[in-house]
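User: I'm writing a tutorial on reading structure tokens. Could you give me a worked example: one chain, its sequence, then its tokens, then a sentence or two explaining what the tokens reveal?
Assistant: Sure. Here is the example chain.
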Amino acid sequence: MTVHDDLREPLVSAVRTAIGDDLRSLVSFTRDDFEQLYLRSDLERGADVEGFVGNERLWFDAVTAYGGSELGEYQFTVRAFTDGYVVRAIEGELGAFATTDRMPIAEFNEVASAMRGVLREVQENGVEQ
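And here are its predicted structure tokens:
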């Protein structure tokens, strides 16, 4: 069993609860691997998930670079596109990102909080990575 197996059900559930039908896809990742945990049924496989993951992995080290900032502790990142968003959260050595349809930007705090909670819980339970 991998960390992604342990994340699948609780992370998909938490993010679907926070985002609802606007969730397009959900990917969990570590420094070494990744897995697409969810893809909405009306979307076709074939997106460059590995390219997205490569970019998101860069932030494992960058998260600590923000430590001690007068802005406080890093929490999550949202990227806006013409037709939707990418929201990424990292906890320790686990990360996840979700892609969404257009939705109110204020809702991303709830989404990221749900993601971080599941990532933290799975990591604290000592799951194999």
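What the tokens reveal: Strands lie at 23-29, 34-39, 77-81, 84-91, 94-100. Helices lie at 3-19, 49-57, 59-65, 108-124.
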